[in-house]
Amino acid sequence: MATRDKRSKVPRWRGVVMVNGKSKSKSFPTKQEAVAWEVATREEMKVQAKEETKTATGSVTLIEWQNAYLDYVGERFSRRTIDEKKALAKRLIKFFKKTMLVEEIGDAEVYRFLAHQNKMRGGNCANKNRKNGAAGWKFGRKTIKGFPRGENPFLEADTYPETRHPRYVPPENDFWDVYNKAEGQDRVVLLTLLHLGARKGEVFNLEVEDLDFENRTVRLWTEKRKGGNREFDLVPMTETLAAALKDWLKETRVKSEYVFVNQCDHHYSQAHWGKPFTSRQHWIHAVCRRAGVKAFTWHAIRHLTATILYKEGQPASVIQRVLRHKSPTTTARYMQRLGLAETREALVSVMDGRGTVIKTEE
């Protein structure tokens, strides 16, 4: 309770608060200010005491769980996967409190969190958070002392309806229009992506020692494997690609261990001179505009490779090896999203011509 400070020469009031044996005091010019401070401080100290009690029990907090999981994924997974996990951690901490105990996160709490994500970002994002949350929970249960041993609440949650937009695959003519607008290194990068069916990062991180001109193979490194293991695949190098790569290595102004590096003369690129590319999404969109075609992404070129192979009659098993999918299920799902389902061809070949068209009399 606020009391008059008789030791002060000017009128002063001292607020005093004690919670669980801990006390705080502060002097104010008026009694009203001292009382208001006491009320606010008492609540703060009660909350702090409650959190300290939680920590003392040995229970795991949300922030402890997420930090441990991010340390784990940071050593094993690709940058894209790590960014997904970090995004989920930020959303969990923002929705709950970082000091919230993991044991307090049950089915109802996960439902509220995912419902909020669905409302704010859609079903695709909510389901991705559900998947990553379940993986993080599984990690915590296996590795963190004091982590809840019950059911995984993320797996108990239902999935949300998703809106799946078809992946845009540029017509082959549009690709060659863009290719003809490109020059030097950029043209060779485009050709490499098309002929290898490779991912952007695999080509941007391609090293000279990965090129075997004698045996006509390219060694492509990827981290898109279970557990984030970095593995390589040997991919055939076409004669066309071999010639283009040889010419480029003779012409390049920068001698580097990497095949493709930044050689832009603009002042804003000087800090990246001689270093491998990372994104260049603005460049591919800009050259599409110059070519007068609908903008496509680097990854769409990988889609185009699969599309060309399919239209030329190559079976799914061959496309799987070119795309370097470990599972044929992945390739089947990939082709389905590209609109290359074999059921369509079967339906057309079998059903076309069955039945007659009834013409109406004019």
Low-pLDDT segments: none
Along the chain, the helix and strand elements come as EEEHHHHHHHHHEEEHHHHHH
How would you sum up the major sheet? 3 strands, antiparallel
Please name the CATH topology of the largest domain: hpI Integrase, Chain A
How many distinct beta strands? 6
The level 1 CATH classification of the largest domain is Mainly Alpha
Please state the average pLDDT score: 86
Number of separate helices: 15
| Mass-distribution shape | elongated
Terminus-to-terminus distance: 99 Å
% residues in beta strands: 5-15%
In total, the number of domains comes to: 3
Computed Rg: 30 Å
What is the fourth-level CATH superfamily of the largest domain? Intergrase catalytic core
Helix content: 40-55%
CATH architecture of the largest domain: Orthogonal Bundle
- Widest beta sheet: strand line-up: 1-2-3
Q: What structural category do the secondary elements indicate?
A: mainly alpha
Descriptive notes:
The protein is mainly α. The protein folds into three domains: 54 residues, no CATH class; 95 residues, DNA polymerase, domain 1 (Orthogonal Bundle), CATH 1.10.150; 176 residues, hpI Integrase, Chain A (Orthogonal Bundle). Helix content is 52%, strand content 8%. Helix 7 packs across helix 11, helix 8 runs antiparallel to helix 10 and helix 8 crosses helix 12. It is elongated.
